[in-house]
């Protein structure tokens, strides 16, 4: 057990810090629309031009080819520099890209990888369907082969930023006769393909906040060469990269949330007086969260440690489950601290917006119930339900 | 950076585990009888194996390992619900070592004598009123505070009255502190208060994991409605929550030990955070463990209740969740 980083790691940290301090965008990130897209792409391009995009991506596709520890350090410095989260680039950087790196052929790699890193293309994820949520493998969006094309008909839903995206990682059913996990294919889908229509879906944070869309595919044609990892092999392709970063990206959120808790303590003192926290309910909730945030960070360090020892990635689900809950508690308390003012939803203060936003943290990317099923069965060895 | 034990550290853990599995299965508490425990019989053996001296520098008569090894050892002590008298020996030997009382140190490290723990009754009593744990036949009583730590002879306490212990595996007394310490060190000499909190955090991690494993094992074998109860999600998810909380507590305990080894100014913050997270976890896991066992969990025939009661002892020792939560707000933002 040790907390020390090597001299090279330390040097990497200093260089990252220096670069981030000089280059981080200072303007506030817009909450939606084309401005948000422009902002996220520009920040991604800035990182790419600076040589810092894709710390763990292979060098041949413009990445840095470094390991998990460096990835962790990069995210720590990223959060400390208060660098903006370019959420729109998330799917490309953490799902679509890594899937192509792991399973794509040479042409697919050449065509798609660099434009993700360099901030030219936004990717979105088309997995969930109206009737396939937690039970993802029951998806029904149909695709049949016609010559050298796939013809796609059906619907995807909850596609985050689908209306702002260029490309989509899409799961379709290519063999309806096969058992449900066997007849699925993972497809690169261009969002400009004729036959695709989008319906924006407003989310609960405030009126006019479109976060995701429903996609309708009506005989949309995709070149067969866009299938990644082989026809009908899409389930194992999708599963193999779901835990790609093994949670290192979460260290960013943890550090941000730890800062937020500090800010909340300061704000509570300012609002209610220094003596107020002592013995008050807010005081004890803040104190517990201060301790829990420390533990959450230690859990991320443990995830990286375990990955280095090749311990089962299922263990990382412990950290994810914990972090989702803690984030909700932090934001709820932030909301409580601002008191009656929380009933106003101002554009220039994030505390209300992000409070409402955290209701998604125990739903998106596998609900907390599904995570508990996984922990129960794969970590603790309990019988299947 | 690596939060997992090294091979050498794992070897120590395995040795302790094997020893306790054979010599101190939790069943011993039930078999021993209504009150008390047989753990003092283990002290000479544990002393001989060097387990009381792990974190003590070798130039002070210790094994010369770090806080990390100590943390790992106390995790196992908690897992097996070893009497908290073990804190008295380990921390008492540390006090003696730093005070230059080599003979006393060696006597404690050998495990030949008993050291009880004095814990302030807090708001429940006057400033000089204490609970004494495991001190009945003890030569010494350990007292740890933010200012430092000291060993008192038992007769430094007056008006000693035996009371019923909620954790009936431990002997509990009430007493007034009226005498002077025999050996004392200040917080400037050694960060023994932080160490005590950190080790109690580790101990509570072990209690949490013990309760988790008991619940998981039972939900695999107890059948209702034609299947193991662990197949029901409401049980499975309770077990998953126990695992999530235990993991958080273990990671923070590991982090706290390593921060302490680095001599970081964040040591008190992380030690306190560790005690908070682990004690909260231990109580909740033990409570869930009772529920998972149904009526059996409500009996004295199951081991479950021991975990709950010990979790509460761990919480109260050296400042409960309430006090620790107040304290943690007073520390500067950690790095
Ligand atoms: C903010 C946000 C962004 C998202 N972005 C995307 C995206 O970009 N692309 C994409 O494809 N999807 C996306 N999703 C969808 C997400 O993956 C699904 O919401 C999630 O998998 C759950 O599916 P569902 O919403 O259909 O809920 P359901 O599966 O209908 O679940 C409803 C409730 O039933 C519970 N439940 C279901 N099955 C079980 C079971 N076996 N055991 C116990 N409880 C169960 C669930 O936990 C939940 O509480 C996003 C969701 C959110 C909230």
From TrEMBL, chain A:
Domain Acyl-CoA dehydrogenase/oxidase N-terminal span(s) in chain numbering: 6-120
Gene Ontology CC: plasma membrane
Domain Acyl-CoA oxidase/dehydrogenase middle: 124-202
Necessary cofactors: FAD
One of the record's GO molecular function terms: oxidoreductase activity, acting on the CH-CH group of donors
Residues of the Acyl-CoA dehydrogenase/oxidase C-terminal domain: 232-380
InterPro entries documented for this protein: Acyl-CoA_Oxase/DH_mid-dom, Acyl-CoA_Oxase/DH_mid-dom_sf, AcylCo_DH-like_C, AcylCo_DH/oxidase_C, AcylCoA_DH/ox_N, AcylCoA_DH/ox_N_sf, AcylCoA_DH/oxidase_NM_dom_sf, Mycobact_Acyl-CoA_DH
Keywords: FAD, Flavoprotein, Oxidoreductase
Entry annotated with the keyword Oxidoreductase: yes
KW Transcription regulation (keyword) present: no
Record-stated family: Belongs to the acyl-CoA dehydrogenase family.
Record protein name field: Alkylation response protein AidB-like acyl-CoA dehydrogenase
From TrEMBL, chain B:
Domain Acyl-CoA dehydrogenase/oxidase N-terminal: 6-110
Gene3D superfamilies: Acyl-CoA dehydrogenase/oxidase, N-terminal domain (1.10.540.10), Butyryl-CoA Dehydrogenase, subunit A, domain 3 (1.20.140.10)
Cofactor(s) recorded in Swiss-Prot or TrEMBL: FAD
Domain Acyl-CoA dehydrogenase/oxidase C-terminal: 199-328
Signal peptide feature range: none
Domain of life of the organism encoding this protein: Bacteria
SUPFAM superfamilies: Acyl-CoA dehydrogenase C-terminal domain-like, Acyl-CoA dehydrogenase NM domain-like
InterPro entries linked: AcylCo_DH-like_C, AcylCo_DH/oxidase_C, AcylCoA_DH/ox_N, AcylCoA_DH/ox_N_sf, AcylCoA_DH/oxidase_NM_dom_sf
Keywords on record: FAD, Flavoprotein, Oxidoreductase
GO molecular function ontology, one term from the record: flavin adenine dinucleotide binding
KW Oxidoreductase (keyword) present: yes
Family: Belongs to the acyl-CoA dehydrogenase family.
Protein name as annotated: Alkylation response protein AidB-like acyl-CoA dehydrogenase
